Amino acid sequence: PCTLPFHIASCDASSMISNEMFRRFGLPSIRREMPGMERAVFHMDGRGVAQHVETILEQPDIQAVQWVQ
Q1: Do residues 36 and 5 lie in contact, with contact meaning Cβ atoms separated by under 8 Å?
Q2: Element of type H or E holding 31
Q3: pLDDT digits (tens, 9 = 90+) for 24-62
């Protein structure tokens, strides 16, 4: 079990937007959820969100991805 403060972020709406829009609107929202967290997991809900996997993996504050088909 993790004893550090952690957060599971998600952005299900990103399944309906381009990567450019995800970078512009989704990432800032996700980043606002991270302050104070020692660990972060991104909840990736299906193929639509998976189009942004490379962008998500570039984020240094996200240590893991939770993939849900």
Answers
A1: yes
A2: helix 27-33
A3: 999 999 999 888 888 999 999 878 899 999 999 999 989
